[in-house]
Prior knowledge:
CATH class of the largest domain: Mainly Alpha
Shape: globular
Order of helices and strands: EHEHEEHHHHEEHHHH
Mean pLDDT: 88
Amino acid sequence: MAAPYELIYYTGVPGRGEHVRLILEEAGAPYTDTRPLPMDKCREIVTHYLSGEEQGNPPYYAPPLFKHGDLLISQTSNILMYLGPKLGLAGSRENDIYRVNALALTALDGLSNEVHDCHHPIVSELYYEDQKEESLRRSKEWVKHRLPKHLGYWEKVLKSEDRGQGPWLLRSTFTYADLVLFQASSPITVSTCRPCLDGVQFAFPKAMKQARESGKYDSVFQLWKDVKARPNIAAYLDSDRRQKYDWGIYRYYPDNDVLPE
């Protein structure tokens, strides 16, 4: 379709919409984004599209939403799976799209959903301050057991010999799965000018620093460097379109910034 790509997501927070921005930026694809809109106007638009009033589309539960012509879809992985083949970022072999999607889903499950649940372990509707004790307990257990398991898995994928030569998750072919994994471990500088890390590194800088310095996951952190060096991604990270983290999926709470016991 010749229709424009339209990303519909809450303003003021990168959130799950950031994965969609990364694939569009990497491909150099023009798109519109609700990000620059005032919060009240953005929520009005999101509410409209969630309502199911758009002809031929059902009501959806939550953003991100992606509009392309008459098609309106939700769910980050679903949007990426739609865009991947169109933008040449879904692999080069028959059925690679399913391999790429499996990798992306694993990264979203382990390094996005699980990290969010560290600061909201009981229910999202309660403030962090109302579940601090449970949040600390979960964070301790997560950095001790789940973090090394996830990093170890990605190291295994990147070192798998049957994938051929190349630095990416599918070796020689760069895909949107590399972007999803990158988003969980890419550094930014927050407004305080203090060097911080986005994604998991933003939420758990001490544990991730220890993991980086251990040398056990060198391939994982090298992938981050390689993605960051891609021209379109580098330009995006340096632009004002790349939002800083303060709330949403990845949050930094000093009490939760623990090392494995």
